[in-house]
Amino acid sequence: MNHQLPLTLIVLANLPPTWGVGCDSPVLGDLVYEARLPTAMIDGHPDATASLLPGIAAEAGVQLLGPISPAHELDVLAGKLLSFGGYKPNWDGEQACSPSDDGVYDAIDFLSFLPQGIPTPKPMVLASGDVALYWDDGPLYAEIGFDGSHTYYAYAERPGSAAVHLDDEPIKKGFPPAVLALLGGGGTFVERAAA
Amino acid sequence: MKCVDIPAFLREDHEPKTRCERLSAALGGFQCENESVAPGISPGIIALDEPLVRYLLEDHIEEMPDGSKAVKPNAFSHAGTNGMSVDRRRHISNTHAAAEVARNYVGYVLATCANIRDIQAEGKRCFAVYDTALNINPAHADICQCVFAPKSQQAKYRRRLKDVFDRFPTPFEELSKSQEYLPTPPRSLCKVLVDRLKSLFRRRSAG
Questions:
Q1: Using CB atoms within 10 A as the burial measure, which of A31, A190, B114, B200 is most buried?
Q2: ipTM here
Q3: Dist. CA A23–CA A159, nearest whole Å
Q4: CB contact under 8 A, B73 and A124
Q5: So where are chain A's domains?
Q6: What is the pLDDT of residue A167?
């Protein structure tokens, strides 16, 4: 498993067929999309010389431009998750288990799948030692947790929608679309293209 | 397992992650809520309308964008592992409250016993509440999850448990300021004392 901090990259979408000679300049909002690509999609070290794995560019119609700085909130979140690695057994005085290194790094890896357009989740450590990310906005609740097995569980509910229950999902499958639908995020270009 | 074995079981040295699950399997029901599991120490079985206090660490509290504070779901996760400690508000002693402050609790939330026992999923009760009194804290009780399922389901049970407690934490100091907090002897004990005093006066008057 890749234990790198979340990576944000810019991808350039294929120009729409309607864009042509008469246009002075492209409308960036229509053409350039910022997406955090899963490291599994990147060939080689994620720097300027990195390239998308064969098939990804053709499939999604994207071009890798290079890494940009991770958003500040994600930086803070990744830092908080890293700090969980220092929790010892009985960290709360009530015999809570300490998080495993793999649990912490699985959660950090998962940050690279967070879609655009949704709030930054909050982190927590459960008494079982599982590390979890959650969104709690009154009636809307979602939780995605990691126990170090390189899989996650997900639970989400919102009034008027069917609750989401996922277990033992491989992290490399990325952010669960059903949870994204409840959170109301629009998804990244890559996710929309892959949908 | 006998009901009186529950307090020791919840504090055993073995795998804490599965204590409530093993306890639930061993008991197979809720009969131990109807008798004291710590006779001689406990003030008695827990009444349905009793408020239960869950103390909170810094790690259980989240700072909201508007500066307010909310309780994190992990404050309730012990119910699914080794038992979630709560105190019975009507029986908290001043000495114990001071000790809790020393342990750096920063706030608390309340729920009534009935609301916890009423939580159900797929027609089954999710949590049991036992009067696991301790010598140093007779007000102590434990909430134990009693249905176990994949983790996504357990997240739902935890969420339901969180929902019956206050959404926002009260600062710990407020507990000791509260009039209700002051320990009051049970009504039956008061009645006994009054009756004995009356009978003493009667005897003296007669003598």
A1: A190
A2: 0.83
A3: 45
A4: yes
A5: 8-68, 72-193
A6: 98
